[in-house]
Amino acid sequence: MENSTISAPATPEFAGQNHSQTHHHLEPDHHHHHAALPSTSILLIVIPIFIVILLLAIFLLIVMLRKLQNYKSHGSIKSGSTISNNDCMFSARSSINISSSPDVRSRCLYGSSGNKMAASKCRGVQVFTYKELEMATNKFSAANVIGNGGYGVVYRGILSDGTVAAIKVLHRQGKQGERAFRLEVDLLSQLHSPYLVELLGYCADQHHRLLIFEYMPTGTLQQLLHSSANPQFSRTLNWGMRLRIALDCGRALEYLHEYTTPSVIHRDFKCSNILLNQNFRAKVSDFGLAKIGSDKMNGLISTRVLGTTGYLAPEYASTGKLTTKSDVYSYGVVLLELLTGRVPIDTKRPPGEHVLVSWALPRLTNREKVMEMVDPALQGQYSKKDLIQVAAIAAMCVQTEADYRPLMTDVVQSLIPLVKNLSSNCSSGSFRSVSPRKSSHLTAQVKNFKVGHMLP
After folding, report:
1. Residue ranges at the known binding site for ATP
2. The domain spanning residue 438 has which CATH number?
3. pTM of the entire structure?
4. Which of 134, 240, 369, 400 could serve as 363's disulfide partner, Cβ 3.0–4.6 Å?
5. Is 268 among the catalytic positions?
6. What domain range is 206 assigned to?
7. Among 103, 268, 286, 327, the one annotated catalytic
8. Is residue 51 part of a domain?
9. DSSP 110-153
């Protein structure tokens, strides 16, 4: 009995120690659980943000690539127009895009900083500072003024490289003036034809707006044909010169209408916008009011009526509906001026003769009256057959209904043989009546107009 061992329960002290050891043993697992939780949460937040940023970067890259592609496809000129000296001069079309003006995008027009900027080029057209043009015109001396009008003043100037140029200082104010300036720079920097006045450069220093053109020493057709101060000028324009001017102008409009895509409507075609070089060859100028035609079948666009009274087509003047046939009407008015020596509107003439088209149109179908209409300054030096043919073309161009007017291509093809025959006649020293070859399409139109009986 004395050797029996009795197991006594653990004392509270040892129990507390065991509990403490158990507590200390479990505590590291509890801390590990809390340490792992924040890193998982960070990953759950960072990964979506990274994905969103990556997607945004891809989206922006796609947008930039598309803009670059559009810029390359629309901002460049797909000009494949090759010009020859043959009668059919244009073997390819010129693609233009006026909506994507390079001037704001590349800051060519508005990026100059006063007179510090040296002459540079934007799209092949030279950019001048105002100071350079001051030097070229002797500080815009009145002695160098060669033209004046509502648009501004034109000066004769000599550029730094010795080139003689016509420098037009624009006076147009407001949004319309700015639009006209930008449009003319845009158009003429892309359109290249021997029948359009060449744009050499421009200036857009601060508020100054100037255009620099090739110099045409003989002046405007308006000055030569209607100058009351110098009536000998109209006598200088003989029949052959007038036919050649008519053909040159016709080719200019043919280029704008038929050989550009989309077509360009001049909208202000008139004698004062036809310039002549030293050989009396004509070029068309002033595209401040030009309009880009529609790509639709009839090419019809509606716009505000702008232009010069006496040259406006009836449908455009009354409704604002503009097509290339509106230019054809204006061309017909100029053709009548070349034939008669009269201005489009002349209130000093007797009643019934104030408006050239209204007075001339019924007379163009009568052989005898056509002869009476001819400009006295020609002194009878012309071919009667050629006169009748030109009168028939003019009659078609100034028809009240636009659909009855010919295309400029038909007009050009009808004038080419007249000029050729005239050249051969002049070389032999006579005005022999040579039956001209006529464009079959326009001749058919003339017969429908009942002037075919005029042609012998």
Report:
1. 168
2. 1.10.510.10
3. 0.70
4. 369
5. yes
6. 102-214
7. 268
8. no
9. T---GGGSPPEEETTEEE--HHHHHHHTTTT-GGGEEEEETTEE
